[in-house]
Amino acid sequence: MWLHSENPQRRPRGSLFTGLALLVFLFWSAPPAPAAEFDGYPCLSGSCSDHRAGYNWAKRKRITDADDCDGESEAFIEGCRAYVAGGLGRVTTDNARSDDQDFNY
Fold first, then answer.
1. What counts of helices (H) and strands (E) characterise the chain?
2. How far apart are CA 80 and CA 57, in angstroms?
3. d(CA 34, CA 7)
4. Helix (H, G, I), strand (E, B) or coil at 14
5. For residue range 33-55, what is the model confidence (pLDDT) as tens digits?
6. Which sign does the torsion angle of CA 93, 95, 100, 102 carry?
7. Which of 12, 14, 46, 58 could form a disulfide with 83, with the two C-beta atoms 3.0–4.6 Å apart?
8. Strand, coil or helix: what is 91?
9. Range list of β-strands (E), the chain
10. In this structure, are residues 51 and 35 in contact, taking their beta carbons and an 8 Å threshold?
């Protein structure tokens, strides 16, 4: 009579589960790549709407100092800073980094 552990073709039960668990962990733990950028700032929402709002606000107010960029979201402040830095208010995506779409309303 032989025991299961003596069978050379039998794998330990946990190895398949451990491998799958590791793959799932690595897949979900990797940070997502930003879908778009607004004048170099990553847009986590994909639409860059807060960045555009901050940029347009700074343009309307004629903000010239980044220290005057204020807002409730980091994206809004980054949009304002993009205007102050001379950005063009453009959204670029991974598929088209040379996108010439201008979002100045």
1. 3, 3
2. 7
3. 49
4. helix
5. 557 999 999 998 778 999 999 99
6. negative
7. 58
8. strand
9. 36-38, 41-43, 91-93
10. no
Encoded amino acid at 20, one letter: L
Q: Is the pTM of this model over 0.85?
A: no
Q: What is the dihedral of CA 24, 25, 29, 34, to 10 degrees?
A: -10
The burial of 83, by beta-carbon neighbours within 10 Å (0-12 exposed, 13-18 middle, 19 or more buried), is given as buried
Q: What integer pLDDT is reported at residue 23 of this predicted model? A: 59
Query: CA-CA distances (angstroms) from residue 45 to 1, 35, 36, 50?
Result: 63, 8, 8, 9
**pLDDT (tens digit, 9 = 90+) per residue, 64-83?**
999 999 998 999 999 999 99
Task: Write the DSSP symbol of residue 81.
Answer: H
Q: Are 104 and 79 in contact (CB under 8 A)?
A: no
8-14-16 Cα angle (round to 5): 85
Count, residues in the chain: 105
**Both structure tokens of 96:** 């088209």
For the beta carbon of residue 60, count every other beta carbon within 10 angstroms.
Answer: 9
